[in-house]
Amino acid sequence: MGKLETKVNIHIPIRGHLSKYCFSVNDKVKSVTDTEIDFGFKSFQIPHITIYMGYLKSDAIFEELLERLYLYSSKISAFEITFTEPYLKEPKENYLFLDTYQSEKIIKLKQEVKDLIGDLIEPLEWDVVAEPPHITLAYIKRNQAAIKQLLRYFTPPPKLFANAIELSFCGPRGSCLGTIKSIELQS
């Protein structure tokens, strides 16, 4: 098989007040140090909670992927997600994360989506499903001490009403580059 090039990210989009919060935190981090995650106006990157990601086994199966996601999303209801405060993930402290308090529910969702579309997507080298659900706010390579100081001033994040599943092209560090398709969940 030839090299697979179309990398996609299936995710829960971050909307409303939480989206503004993510933009604000990302902007404050950028005022202190460089980050490979950029939610600024000139960037296509968007905040999200990854459900599954990998490489399409062929571009021809794109429609099949969407059909399966539509069918699956019609069977699940929207739900509320709450979050931890931002923190630097150990051991390298280079990812700035918000973890969810609904990890078990979201990991179950991740496994169901993997089971549904796994034959269409070549997985990454690490286990996306087992990774605790989170929002990546920044990826930094230096100035961790300054970011730790900045963390003291962040307010707790607002809740999210997860009411859609989206498909995006996947960029560096698992970032979502815009939205290809948004599929609303049952209310």
In the CATH hierarchy, what is the class? Alpha Beta
Give the overall shape: globular
Instruction: Tell me the count of domains.
Output: 1
Number of helices: 4
* Secondary-structure content class: alpha+beta
Sheet bearing the most strands, described? 6 strands, antiparallel
The N- to C-terminal Cα distance equals 42 Å
Record the strand order, biggest sheet. Answer: 2-11-10-1-3-7
What proportion of the residues form beta strands (DSSP E)?
Answer: 25-35%
In total, the number of strands is 11
CATH H-level superfamily:
Cyclic phosphodiesterase
Outline the low-pLDDT stretches.
Answer: none
CATH-level-2 architecture: Alpha-Beta Complex
CATH topology: Cyclic Phosphodiesterase, Chain: A
Overall average residue pLDDT: 94
Keywords:
single chain, 187 residues, alpha+beta, Cyclic Phosphodiesterase, Chain: A, 6-stranded antiparallel beta sheet, 3-stranded antiparallel beta sheet, 11 strands, 30% strand
